[in-house]
Design a protein that fits this description.
This protein is mainly alpha-helical. It has 4 helices and 5 strands, in the order E-E-H-E-E-H-H-E-H. The N and C termini lie far apart (85 Å).
Length: 147
């Protein structure tokens, strides 16, 4: 697997594994100049869409051919597509201050999501308790009184 050129110093220094998934909040870091770089967001989106389309195409072919054989082509072709798209994606330079800002924004979003999910669980737990209590009251009411 080849190296990618750093958009800051033009050195062939960015590893392929560092390039995969490099976004503004977690960019690839150049070992030569310490410059940060990332791949545009639309790359990972087009990869997901492309893999879904590939799987659909092979499924249609399998249905038309009335054979399961084309289904075995899904994984190698998806892997090839994943590799090719990341390899040809362009690395864009990003300043360290911008990375910090994206990191903070992501942290806020994660915290908000966490708080929201906590609130939701608490709410559903309470409504569950309410339901149980109501049910118990009904059961008690149905039981004949003991004298
Ligand atoms: Zn560099």
């Amino acid at each position: 697997m080849g190296m990618d050129a750093c958009p800051h110093c033009a050195e062939q220094s960015i590893r392929f594994t560092a390039k995969i998934g490099a976004d503004p909040a977690s960019p690839a870091c150049c070992p030569v100049c310490q410059g940060h770089s990332y791949v545009a967001n639309k790359v990972s989106t087009s990869i997901s869409v492309g893999i879904i389309l590939l799987a659909c195409t092979w499924s249609v072919i399998a249905a038309l051919a009335n054979s399961a054989l084309p289904l075995y082509a899904i994984i190698p072709s998806a892997a090839w597509f994943f590799y090719r798209t990341w390899q040809t994606a362009r690395l864009l330079p990003i300043e360290t201050e911008t990375v910090e800002r994206h990191r903070r924004a992501r942290k806020t979003v994660t915290l908000l999501a966490f708080l929201l999910s906590f609130f939701h669980v608490k709410k559903s737990a309470r409504s569950g308790l309410f339901y149980n209590r109501q049910n118990k009251d009904r059961l008690i009411a149905r039981r004949p009184a003991i004298r």
